[in-house]
Amino acid sequence: MSGTNGHNGSSEWRDENSHRLEMSKHVAVVTGGARGIGRAVCLAMAREGVRAVAVVDQLEDVASFTDKANERFGRKVLVPFQGDVTDSDFRRHVFSEMQSLYGAVSICVPAAGITRDRLAVKIDRETGEVDLYDEDMFNRVIGVDLTAPIFWGIETIGSVAQERHNKNSGKWNPEEGVQGCIILIGSVSSAGNKGQISYATAKSGLEGAQATLAAEAIFHGVRCAIIHPGFTDTAMVRAMGTDYIAKNVLPQTQLRRLIHPEEIADAVCFMIRNSTVSGQLWADAGWHPTA
Question: Are 147 and 184 in contact (CB under 8 A)?
């Protein structure tokens, strides 16, 4: 008889780490990795002992960031790549380089994002002319915040699938342990937010992408989840202005402060490690906007 005394395979005697994804065995890619949440995720992964991280960013100082971080960690764990995340050839180059150096890329956190905030429709009070949201601007936000994260995730699934095919592994078996993980970066704006027609649309779209990729990728042993951060202390949020943040953001946040990027990074690493975490996680600091 199995019971509560720890006999016959009781959970009391189970290896507490057997269910966790061990980062030291994995290679990761993080877009938007030289700033904000992406930067914090790269550093958190390095502390967790990840084998290597491709730090992808369009900033020129991405190499400077990785050099300083690698010196700090005493090993070459962060690998810089400068380019546009919407460029398919650039994306394939990153994966090709990482695979040749370290093997399959099995963790992906596509954190690069932009905002182009304004009302969808504005009317000039003096002339009466209607000013509509620019379509090219909308498409740019969708490209960076929705399309690109999806395809960086798909490329990661493909990397794991190819490695498994080369090993004749076939369909994933739970006894193998989780083979990889994709964490998409959503937002509290996915529920809708005045002045963010493009950004909110992109972040909401990631929810459907997450659910679909999760259902498909588990065939190869890859999980996919999404985290929805609240207002985080990044350059993107600070661009709103201190007065706007103090008047319109902090009063509607239970913690009465911006979230630290490191707090989101900690949550992301938790989602990667813990195999039972699926679907959505809200890290919003108690965000409850009024109508």
Answer: no
Q: What's the mean per-residue pLDDT of the chain? A: 91
Query: d(Cα 151, Cα 171) in Å, to the nearest integer?
Result: 22
Helices (H), the chain: 36-48, 62-73, 88-102, 135-142, 148-166, 197-217, 235-238, 242-244, 261-273
Strand order in the sheet with 222-229: 78-82, 52-57, 27-31, 105-110, 180-185, 222-229, 279-283
CA distance 280 to 193: 19
CA distances from 178 to 79, 108, 116, 160 (A): 24, 14, 37, 11
Note whether 167 and 173 are within 8 A (CB). Answer: no
pLDDT in tens, 103-125: 999 999 999 999 999 999 999 88
**Structural domains in the chain, sorted by start:** 21-283 (3.40.50.720)
